[in-house]
Write a structure and sequence with these properties.
3-stranded antiparallel sheet, elongated
Length: 63
Amino acid sequence: MSKTSTPDKPGLDLVAAVDLGSNSFRLLICQAYITPSGMQLRTIDTLREPVRLAAGLTPGKVL
């Protein structure tokens, strides 16, 4: 994961979304802020890693 520094400003929040699927893990980190047109998200960093959770499934799709 790369590092991105942003200046500290009042009212700015970091939010993250995690997607853990059967074959990959994804992470999205954003900075949320309010503009006159509404809530905006600016991507800070992303990560995608293969996990292969489905590799251990039986033909009946049971772990």
